[in-house]
User: What shape does this take?
Amino acid sequence: MMRWSDFHYPGPAYSTASYAKPATVLVALRGLLGEETFVRAFRTLIDTWAFKDPKPWDFFNTVERVSERDLDWFWRAWYYETWTLDQSIASVTTTAGVTTIEIADLGWVPMPARITVTTATGETSIHEIPVEAWLDGSSRAEVQVTGPEVVKVEIDAAGLFPDIDRSNNVWEKERG
Assistant: This one.
């Protein structure tokens, strides 16, 4: 998105970079920050820059200031690059009542991995692998869950992050 419009590749690149990608990235940012912080940041941006000429970095700085988070990794991945997000469930194993869920990061965009775990009793819990796990260069991370038998694991069940291959985001225990 942060390139001159006449530098886009031929075909749908201009339209994607101008319309679909910005909207999708704002949904991802809202999912990352949470509704309350996202709205507060946007209102601060509007109040601060009304009737002025804000630049993209004014938006970036306002969001970081309001959220009190360093989001350089987010801006670079989504605004300056053409990278994609692809997180997948690499494996789910249970040993002695502890279920280990291994998540693989197959894309280039670092994002937290939000994992919804459903047990045989119908209970659900949400676990998160923070973005820092990927920023250090790792391509795999684990979450361990104790308790009732795990029957389903899903990455980003809310569908907030634009993962390019959701077919590998769900694992369900085979019924036997």
User: Anything to note?
Assistant: The radius of gyration is 19 Å. The chain has a mean pLDDT of 93. The first helix runs from residue 13 to 33. Helices lie at 13-33, 35-49, 56-67, 72-80, 132-135.
